[in-house]
């Protein structure tokens, strides 16, 4: 393809040559326009006419650099849109899309302020333009929210955004839809005035009102992806001897339909034979020369590099740094402004972490309380409960072995044992018989049975004697009779473990008391195991303390992920993202702005979470609070970057929510938050270590409960893995956002 010559580029604002664009629909490619040539002169108004779906919006998007051609060239001010120095997208172009593509919660002033910040307008200039546009476009109060405006008012507010910074090029997609005839005329007059001035503005405008295009300097009639005619309105009327543009268009459509069988571009023949082309006579320029061939379908594969420069130097140099802190700031202001209007959002983001911590600390890890247990002691006279029992030594030490006998106080050892049950945890329910106790468990009224037989006290005495603790035991005693027989409902493992522990502790206290009152050593009645002061932690540590480090990180990580997973998606779905791109915001600026906003939200979440966990619920902290804070923040950042990737790849909020939930549960289950990693199959354990939270949870637990510092490999690993995840996911996010740009 021939290079566009310098003269063409200098005199024209937009030159499109042999453009081919298609949309992918599954495996099928639907061509929207093929071999399209179009020229927009500088300082002129170009009206693009065509039926719905003929590709006008697509063409405009290619002009502003929002979409790329599959083949062919588009040059705006001599360069391909998106070229470093072209200024398009950027301050040289004002774009008004068909949809509102603005935040409905913003009022007019806030909306325009956002774009004025991007374009670096001074406050004075901004106020002057705001006043002018309010009057000129007959807009309601500056403080009226866009969502509360009528359709026509919204379109005028949208037009105000395009006109705000007085760009050299205006690309307006149906700006007069929903606008009353008076205002429509006034808009056209303003456009004519802009195109007429010293620094004449170039305007490309699409419209459905064919006749208003009479005011354009040049009109292009688009149908089925091809330009049927392109000329000044008067020339078109003269050439086709018709009274109006509508009639011209209809006539061209009839001819086009006759030649192409009125097929749409997707099913049209890729090439036309000479006869048809002669009949059509529509692909000719003003000099009567054919513009170019309808492309062969292979043309699609023969893509032309969009970045191929026409000339070494751009026709008009326009420079802007690729990264401007001012633009980042503008994007951040906009996001914070939006947040401040959403009370529900603020409560969700900042109250929910506190609520989650509180619920966790209140509901998880504490000992179960008031567990009903059926108690049966067949040695009790009345068969139900203990009225009186002795706390004295049951052995008469006045007699020497083997004459030593239990004294009269021996009776009711069963009552003595029951007396040592922890009544906070266990709620004894006396039952008259073993059968009644079984029924109680079967009815779900108690968690188990503690049974002591009719000869329990004597049998226990004999057992002790037999064991050699005291000489003179009775060898013939039934060993079962001297045992406390326990049968539990173990379907709830935590409750069963708690009951086993509490019953064992009660028995130990019972034995200790006996040893004390009988003046014998308690050691003899204990297991020869001594658990000394723990190396790390205390005996008072609970399951809550085990889980707390993981819960802190999970709350912060998932809240950050949930917030950032929506952040770009919302802007894209509401269309503001497109306008932001066209205003010239680069992917780096947008990534940094969103990242910093998410970090700010995350910072508050980290502070709230740690304050509640440590300040209110007194989770023990042995190590450095600073390390704790930094590691939690890093995990929040990690959630943020993962969320930003989700936000940049998903099309709908539903997709994003599903992915976020899909990540949340495996992460929670595998990261050693709920259960020790050591309990996992080895292969799964190795996999778990590749997840973003596993090493961090271990490091967090080591800081919180063991007081380890960064010098310790387990702590250092937690920090390094978190940093690596942040770096890698941020790079992926940056690549994704640049591709969607
Ligand atoms: N992202 C997309 N993916 C697939 N097809 C698309 C996409 N965007 C537009 N199209 C299709 O491309 C064709 C041209 O769309 P376009 O929006 O450019 O038409 P238009 O001339 O601006 O229509 P209207 O005047 O109704 O706005 C339509 O058939 C449309 O369905």
TrEMBL record:
A molecular function GO annotation: ABC-type transporter activity
Organism of origin: Eurytemora affinis
UniProt membrane topology term: Multi-pass membrane protein
PANTHER family assigned: ABC TRANSPORTER G FAMILY MEMBER 20 ISOFORM X1 (PTHR43038:SF3), ATP-BINDING CASSETTE, SUB-FAMILY H, MEMBER 1 (PTHR43038)
Name of the protein in its database record: ABCH3
InterPro entries registered for this protein in UniProt: AAA+_ATPase, ABC2_TM, ABC2_TM_bact-type, ABC_2_transport, ABC_transporter-like_ATP-bd, ABC_transporter-like_CS, P-loop_NTPase
Any one of the GO CC terms: ATP-binding cassette (ABC) transporter complex
Keywords: ATP-binding, Membrane, Nucleotide-binding, Transmembrane, Transmembrane helix
